[in-house]
């Protein structure tokens, strides 16, 4: 299997960096169609407009409807054609960004991504998660290239609710362990190639950065301040996690997330929180050393990520429901099968129960 490494063409991160958007994007076009959620529009539009003051660049702003569905993608495609825009800009969270990436792909024009929260690694990846208009998962769309430009304004990130940074760290927590599992089983990454040393190194650095700076960064963001720790952790949740996962691959943690989404009890639990618990389950599945598992648990406890079923919404353990999630996580085509030796629903069920019991034990010791 040939090794393959991909990443955004340009990644820019700093406090107030949106004010420099013009110098990082005008080489791609002169008519920008900017898709943003209502909150993101309010926060970023004045800065974007100020960046392009005194230029002939056309800026058109469109409010995202809230769901990255094919209907929403096609609605915006029609508007882009009407306006003759030649650059797409996605501003906001994961669903806004995924919609913007899809529009840019189908219209064959460059994409600029400006995340306003650090809850997801969507900004850097060459894929979109598509849902129905009702919010149910529909499909993944894979693209031949990554975004042309990713602009991360850490002042904007720090002013968002701190729970988003925690969600991002939860999603990023699995990056190294899933990449390691794929490497062990010689499984493909998310761009359907072998894992490069560079890709794996980014995944490893992601985990190391979270452990060293995650707690400090959370404390800073709780006070809406930008410190070196915040800069490092935002880079970890956005770039290292996104590029690390895409080039390192995913394994059990993300399949376990998919499995839990079939349970009504988990509907209000964020992607990052479910992936964090899934990471703990994956380590138990793999028979990882106790010291490694304890490091992950200590980190989760320090920033408020879940280590028990109750914390992801499952107040009472119903074995039938847990098995339902386990079976969904082990469906054909799920990345959990990249675990060396494979995983059966029975094995996953046991690991979930064991992880929950271990988490309860550690919480009792606090």
TrEMBL record:
<dbReference type="InterPro" id="IPR001670">
    <property type="entry name" value="ADH_Fe/GldA"/>
</dbReference>
<feature type="binding site">
    <location>
        <position position="131"/>
    </location>
    <ligand>
        <name>NAD(+)</name>
    </ligand>
</feature>
<feature type="binding site">
    <location>
        <position position="254"/>
    </location>
    <ligand>
        <name>glycerol</name>
    </ligand>
</feature>
<feature type="binding site">
    <location>
        <position position="127"/>
    </location>
    <ligand>
        <name>NAD(+)</name>
    </ligand>
</feature>
<dbReference type="InterPro" id="IPR016205">
    <property type="entry name" value="Glycerol_DH"/>
</dbReference>
<dbReference type="GO" id="GO:0046872">
    <property type="term" value="F:metal ion binding"/>
</dbReference>
<keyword id="KW-0479">Metal-binding</keyword>
<keyword id="KW-0560">Oxidoreductase</keyword>
<dbReference type="Pfam" id="PF00465">
    <property type="entry name" value="Fe-ADH"/>
</dbReference>
<feature type="binding site">
    <location>
        <position position="171"/>
    </location>
    <ligand>
        <name>glycerol</name>
    </ligand>
</feature>
<protein>
    <recommendedName>
        <fullName>Glycerol dehydrogenase</fullName>
        <ecNumber>1.1.1.6</ecNumber>
    </recommendedName>
</protein>
<dbReference type="GO" id="GO:0008888">
    <property type="term" value="F:glycerol dehydrogenase (NAD+) activity"/>
</dbReference>
<comment type="pathway">
    <text>Polyol metabolism; glycerol fermentation; glycerone phosphate from glycerol (oxidative route): step 1/2.</text>
</comment>
<comment type="similarity">
    <text>Belongs to the iron-containing alcohol dehydrogenase family.</text>
</comment>
<feature type="binding site">
    <location>
        <position position="125"/>
    </location>
    <ligand>
        <name>NAD(+)</name>
    </ligand>
</feature>
<feature type="domain" description="Alcohol dehydrogenase iron-type/glycerol dehydrogenase GldA">
    <location>
        <begin position="8"/>
        <end position="154"/>
    </location>
</feature>
<keyword id="KW-0862">Zinc</keyword>
<dbReference type="GO" id="GO:0005829">
    <property type="term" value="C:cytosol"/>
</dbReference>
<feature type="binding site">
    <location>
        <position position="121"/>
    </location>
    <ligand>
        <name>glycerol</name>
    </ligand>
</feature>
<keyword id="KW-0520">NAD</keyword>
<feature type="binding site">
    <location>
        <begin position="94"/>
        <end position="98"/>
    </location>
    <ligand>
        <name>NAD(+)</name>
    </ligand>
</feature>
<feature type="binding site">
    <location>
        <position position="271"/>
    </location>
    <ligand>
        <name>glycerol</name>
    </ligand>
</feature>
<dbReference type="InterPro" id="IPR018211">
    <property type="entry name" value="ADH_Fe_CS"/>
</dbReference>
């Amino acid at each position: 299997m040939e090794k393959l490494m991909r990443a955004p063409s340009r990644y820019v991160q700093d406090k107030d960096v949106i004010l420099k958007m013009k110098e990082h994007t005008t080489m791609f076009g002169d008519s920008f169609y900017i898709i943003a959620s209502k909150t993101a529009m309010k926060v970023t539009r004045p800065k974007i407009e100020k960046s392009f003051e005194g230029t002939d660049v056309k800026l058109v702003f469109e409010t995202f409807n809230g769901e990255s569905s094919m209907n929403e993608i096609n609605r915006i495609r029609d508007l882009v054609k009407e306006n003759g825009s030649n650059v797409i800009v996605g501003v906001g969270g994961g669903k806004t960004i995924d919609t913007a990436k899809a529009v840019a792909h189908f219209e064959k024009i460059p994409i600029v991504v400006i995340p306003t929260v650090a809850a997801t690694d969507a900004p850097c990846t060459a894929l979109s998660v598509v849902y129905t208009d009702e919010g149910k998962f529909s499909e993944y769309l894979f693209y031949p290239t990554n975004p042309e430009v990713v602009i991360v304004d850490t002042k904007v990130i720090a002013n968002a609710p701190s729970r988003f940074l925690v969600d991002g760290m939860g999603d990023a927590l699995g990056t190294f362990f899933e990449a390691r599992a794929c490497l062990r089983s010689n499984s493909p990454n998310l761009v359907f190639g072998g894992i490069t040393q560079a890709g794996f190194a980014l995944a490893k650095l992601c985990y190391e950065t979270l452990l060293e700076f995650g707690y400090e960064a959370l404390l800073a963001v709780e006070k809406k301040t930008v410190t070196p720790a915040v800069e490092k952790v935002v880079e970890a949740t956005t770039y290292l996690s996104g590029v690390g996962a895409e080039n390192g691959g995913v394994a059990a943690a993300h399949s376990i997330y998919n499995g839990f989404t079939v349970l009504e009890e988990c509907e209000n639990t964020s992607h990052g929180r479910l992936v964090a618990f899934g990471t703990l389950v994956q380590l138990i599945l793999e028979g990882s050393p106790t010291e490694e598992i304890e490091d992950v648990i200590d980190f989760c406890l320090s920033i408020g990520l879940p280590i028990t079923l109750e914390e992801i919404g499952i107040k009472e353990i119903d074995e039938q429901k847990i098995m339902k999630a386990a079976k969904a996580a082990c469906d054909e085509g799920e990345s959990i099968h990249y675990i060396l030796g494979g995983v059966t629903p029975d094995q996953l069920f046991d690991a979930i129960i064991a992880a929950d019991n271990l988490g309860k034990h550690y919480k009792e010791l606090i």
